[in-house]
Amino acid sequence: MSIGLPKMFRLNAALLGLVLAVAPSAHATDAPSGQALVRTYCSGCHLEHDGAFERINSIRKTPEGWVMTLFRMHQVHGLALPEDVHDGIVRYLSDTQGLAPSEAAPARFALERRPNAKDLDLGPELATMCGRCHSLARVALQRRDSADWLKHMHFHVGQFTSLEYQASGRDRPWWTIASTELPPKLGQLFPLTTPAWTAWSQRAARDLSGSWVVVGHEPGGRDLYGTAEIAADGHGGYTAHYRLKDTAGTSVGGESHAIVYTGYEWRGRAELGGRASREVFAASEDGSRIVGRWFDPEHTEEGGDWTAVRNDAQPQVLAVLPRAMKAGSSGSVIVVATGITSPATLSLGAGTTTRVLASDAGALRASVEIASNTATGARTVSIAGASGQGAFAVYDKIDKIEIRPSFGIARVGGGKIAAVTAQFEAIGQAKDAAGNTLALGPIAADWSTLPYDAEAARTHDEAFGGGIQNSGRYVPAGAGLNPVREFSGNNTANLKVVARVRDGTATVEGDSHLIVTVQRWITTPIY
Amino acid sequence: MRMKSPGLLAVALVAVVAAVAIGPTAAAGDMLVTAAKPDKLYVIDAAKRSVVSEFHIPNAGSLIMTIVPSPDGKVAYALVNRMESISGIDLKTGKEVFRADLSTPGERVKDFCAFTITPDGKELIVYELPTKLLPSEFQVQEPRFAVFKTNAGRSAKAIRTYPAPRRLHMMLMRPSGKSFYAIGFDLYEYDVATGKQLNSRGILKWDMPSHSQPDLLAFWPVTEPSGVFTSPVISDATTDGKTTMKTGLMSLDVTTDKLEFFDFEDTSALIFSTVLSPDRKWAYGVYSTLTKVDMEHHVLAGRVPLDHTFYSVNLATDGHEIYMGGAMCDVGFYDPVTLEKRANLKLPDCGDQSLASLRVLPAR
Q1: Domain extents for chain A?
Q2: ipTM surpasses 0.95
C-alpha cells in the first residue's frame, strides 16, 4: 500500500508521492531499530561519532521535513532506500528528533496544507532572505544550532545557484548576510535544544485508542459529525473506523490507517465516503483531542477541518448545526457533543422550544422553534450534563457577509500539473441588541466574479480566468499560451469574488480578492 | 566519461516561415545562432528566414544558456549542463571541438551566464562559482575566473585562475584583448593576463541623484552591431517628494570605455534585453512588447505588443532589421522603423529557446 520514493519518481508527481510517503505503510517497523537503519543507510556520508551522526543529529524536523530530506538525498545524491527502510527512518527521526507540539503549533497550517494560508511573519529580513522562495513555515518547522544553520546556508548556495541573482536577492550581498547574520539569528529563533523538546521527548506517548466524537467541516461543503473508534493496529500505528453523517443525514463511513509520529503527529491514509483522503492531525498533549485537516491526496486544497474528542471525556458540546437560526423560524438542529445520555434533553435558552427527535453516541437531532419576539444573541446550549457557550445564536437579520478567504489563490492547470481551485465561503454575521457580533456560520450564497481593477477589466480577466460554481469554488481555466489573449498570455486573472445572500427581501453582499496564477512547478510537502 | 561524438543531425532544413510577407531585408548575409531545449543549436540565415544548420550539443542538460561566438564566427561556445560546462560547437561540421566541464567529483562549479573570449579566439575566460561537496555538507568557495585554451579539445582544463567577486552575471571582452568587463554589483574591469582588477565603477552605487539603487540583470552579452552593450535598468526616482519607478538604460562602449545611465520612461512595460543600432541613435528592447528608445533625447520612441514573450533581442549588422529570440520556439524579424513584424521563423521541433542568447555571427 505504501508508496515510497522510488514509486514516487515513476509517478512523476512529487507532491502526491511525498504526501503519501508520510502516510503509513501497512507493515510494522519491528525489525532493525531506527538507529540501526540510519547506521546502515546514512552513515556512509554522515559519519557516526559516539552514537551521533554528522548533520543528522544536529537537526530536528517534522515528519514531512524528514521526508523532504530523504527525497533530496534520493534526487540529488542518488540514495536508494527500500520502502520499509524509508518509512522506518522517517519514523525514527521524527520520534527522536522531532518538534514538540508547542514548537510546531504556529506553522501547522503548512503541514495541514491549508490553502490560502497566510505565512508566518518573522520580520522583513527573513521574509526577503528566505520567504521569497519558500514559506517561512518551512523555516519555523526546523530546529538547528547556529553552526548547522550556517551549513544550511552553504547548502543553499551550492544547490540553488540562482538565489543570489533573483529579484530581492541580487539587490543585497545575499551570501554575506546569509553566512554571517542569519545563522546566529536562526539559531536563536529556532534552536536545536529547547526546554519544550527536552520535556516532550522524555514523556511517555499517550495511547489514543478508544471512542471519539468527531465533527468536521468542508469549506463550501458539508458539515460532518459522528464517531470514531480508534484501536492500536499491533504494529505501532492505529486503525480508525469512522461512522459519520452529513447534516442531510447521509452516512459517510470510512477507515483510516495512521501512524502517530513524535507522540502526537497523526498521519493517516483514509478512505472517507469512498474518497481517498490524507489526515494531518495533532493529538493534544493530554491525548483527549485530535485536531487538524484532511484533504484529497491529489488536490490538497480540497479538504476540511477535523476535531475529535474522547467520548469519555468531560461532557461538552462541540457544535450545533446550523450554528444560528432566525427569530421566528423553525427547523431542526444537530448537536454534536460528548457524554450524551439517554433520554437526551436540549435547551437553547429563552424563547426557544426544542424537542429531541433522536440521539446517538456523539450527536442528537432536535426540532427547534424560535419565538419571533425572543431576544437575539449567543445562546448557551445545554444538554444533560453538558453545555456550550456561544455554540448557537438567534438573530433577526444578516448584518454582514464575510468571505473567507479574504484573499484566495487559484492556479491554472492541465497536463502534468493539475489546476488548483479556490474555495470561497460566505460567513454570516449579525448583531444582537447590545451591538455584539453574532457568528452565523457558513451561509449559502449566489457567487459571481468581477474584474478586480481597471487593468483586469482591460485584459478581460473575468472571461479568461475560469468560473465560479454555486458552492463558491472557483475552477480555473487551462494553462498555457492563449493566442486569443494579449501577448498570447496565460489565463491568469485578478478578480473580485462577490457573494450575495438573500435575507427576506434584503440582499447582503460581501466580496473577496482572487488571483488566478500560474502552476507551482515544484510541489513539496511543506511549501 | 566523455559523451558520444556529436552528430550533425540535419542541414539545410526547410524553413518554416509564418504567413507574413517577407518585407525588405537589407541584412543580407547575417547568420544568426540560437539554441533550444533540450540540446539544439541552430544557425539561421536571416535574409532567407531559414534554419541552415541544426546541431546537437552533447550532454547539454536540457537547457542551453549563454552563447558566445568565436571572433571568426566559426565556433559557438555555449553554457550547458546546468551551467557546469562550456561546449564549443564547430558551426560547419556540428562537431564539439571544445568542452570544459567545470565541476570535478569533489567540487561543483556553476557559471552564472558569464564567460567571454579573447579577440584572437585563443582563450575563453569563464566565471566560476565553486562549492566543495564534502560527505555531509557543502562549503561555498570564493568565486574565480578560469582561463581555458580554446584549442584544448574536449577535456579542457583551466590554465590559470584568478579571484572574482560574487554575483557576476555577464562578461564582455574589450577589443584590445587586454582586459574584459565583468558585470555584477558593479562594473568591473580585469586584466586578461594577470587577473588584476583594473577598475570598478558603481552599478548598485551609481551616480544618479534622487534615484534608488538600480536593478539590472543582463545575461545576453550582445555588443553587435554597435560595439556598445546596453541593458535595461529599473530604479525609483524621487522628485518633489514623489517617487516613480523609472526604466532606463545602461550603455557601455566596450572600445572607448564610456559608461552612461539614463532614464527614458516611467516604467510601463517589462524589458529583458536591449540592443543598440549601429548609428547609436536607437535602442530596441523586448519582452512582451518591442520597445524603441531615442538615444539622443532619452525618450520612449515607440512600443508595440508582441505575439508572445521574447527574451533576447538583436539587430541586423546594417541596422535594418530587428531579430528577437529566447523564451519560445520562434525567431521574430521586425522592422526597426515601423516596429511591424516582417516574419517569424519557427524552429524545427519547437523546443523553447528559454534563456539562450540570440547572436549575430561575426562575418566569416
Answers
A1: 5-198, 211-310, 317-395, 400-517
A2: no
Enumerate residues 6+ apart whose C-beta is below 8 A from A421: A299, A301, A302, A410, A473, A474, A475, A476
- Return the bridge partners of B236, or none: B245
A142-174 pLDDT, tens digit each: 999 999 999 999 999 999 999 999 999 999 999
Provide the Cα torsion B198, B203, B209, B210; round to 10°: -160
Note the pTM of the prediction, 2 decimals: 0.91
Q: Which residue has the cell 444537530?
A: A334
CATH top-level class of B8-17+27-360: mainly beta
Could you confirm whether domain A400-517 is CATH 2.60.40.10?
yes
d(CA B233, CA B212): 11
For residue B350, is it left (φ>0), alpha (ψ between -120 and 50) or beta? left
What are B296-319's pLDDT values in tens digits? 999 999 999 999 999 999 999 999
Enter the C-alpha cell of residue B33. 545562432
* Pairing of β A317-321 and β A289-295: unpaired
Which chain B residues touch A49 with a CB distance below 8 Å? none
**Residues of A near B (CB-CB distance < 8 A)?**
44-47, 54-55, 151, 153-155, 157-159, 161-162, 164-165, 167, 170-171, 173-175, 179, 481, 486-489
Tell me which CATH code domain A317-395 carries. 2.60.40.10
Is A165 in Cβ contact with B112 (below 8 Å)?
yes
Question: What pLDDT score was predicted for residue A22?
Answer: 57
Which residue stretches of chain B have pLDDT < 70?
1-28
Q: How far apart are CA A494 and CA B224, in angstroms?
A: 40
Average per-residue pLDDT for chain A = 92
Q: Judge whether A117 and A138 are in contact, CB under 8 Å.
A: no
Residue B197 gets the label, from left (phi > 0), alpha (psi -120 to 50) or beta, of: beta
Fold of A211-310: Lipocalin (2.40.128)
Confidence class for position A390, pLDDT limits 50, 70, 90: confident
